[in-house]
Give the backbone structure.
Amino acid sequence: MSGIYIHIPFCRQACNYCDFHFSTSLKSKKDFLDALKKEIVLQKDYLETKNISTVYFGGGTPSILTKDEILEIFHELSKYFLIDTDAEITLEANPDDLSKEKLKELSQTPINRLSIGIQSFSDEDLKFLNRIHNAKCAITSVLDAQSAGFKNISIDLIYGIQTLTNKQWKKNIEQALALNVRHISCYSLTVEPRTALYSFIQKGKTKNIDSKKSAEQFEILINEMEKRKYIHYEISNFCKEGFYSKHNSNYWKRINYLGVGPSAHSYNGVSRQWNVSSNSTYINSLKKNILSFEKEVLSENQKYNEYILTSLRTIWGTDFNFVKQKFSQKLLSHLKKEAKIFMGKKLLLQADEKIFLTQKGKLFADKIASDLFFISD
């Protein structure tokens, strides 16, 4: 069981906060698709197994792809991989792309899960983030997707936005729940270098993020989702029973995956590699049958640290027995010693041979994980 991630590096407009790799020019779209199909051929033996359980179209904005372009990509994949009949196949989409006609076309492709980037149901927030759609469009896109037959729908929301009050955040959550979507991903706004938001803050055009408000809104989120019986299965992700994101869960469970497209990452259990973050370099290299990427062979310490980082964020927790089996006694002893400190502070709890974040601990997940890491001398 493995997964495939496909990076579509195009957006119609740049959001103020986004630092993912993309271009707002579609001039190279055809050349990119040709290069993508070439990369699929060249990477057909990267994964140990040909059986694929998840395919994820990310970006960028994959919803700019036409039905025929999506079908062409799947035709190429099917030549070299065995995609399970019940595979989870996700397409990230912007609300403004999801017209009734577009949704009808998508329903005629293998796509069976939509991840809709709503971010907020407040026009003020959307304008601040430089999103194309408005709140009305956000609601309509979900309702139309449901009407088109898509039952597995996830939506993204952002909290900690400078314009977002706690009152409006509660309204955003209530609106999301009223739409009866089965999966909701919620992320705290972060300020990344080389983004418009970073520039605005540096120039004093807007305030920096209020970390206290972000924490408050995260706690509001946890409480509201718990009331509605959503499973908080990963720090940023909530779902109804049976609607976990299988693809993203595979990342957290360290299952192998192939990433194709500029800036896409791949992992095979031994090493990680990531493609060049340049559309032109990516296209020109593949015209010459050259894969342009960097690679890192993971040491035991790095594998251990990655396990801590990914497992601790999830409902499945960090397993002492797994560490004992896969790593050294030295790493297990280190983990137990450091974990005991956080258990004393009520930030971690232990059940059998696993440790989990408490609700309070979820506010400090990154800090706790970093302290559980093993940094060699």
Remarks:
- The domain at 2-252 is CATH 3.80.30.20 (pyruvate-formate lyase- activating enzyme).
- The chain has two domains: 2-252, 317-372.
- DSSP finds 14 helices and 15 strands in the chain.
- The two ends are 37 Å apart (CA to CA).
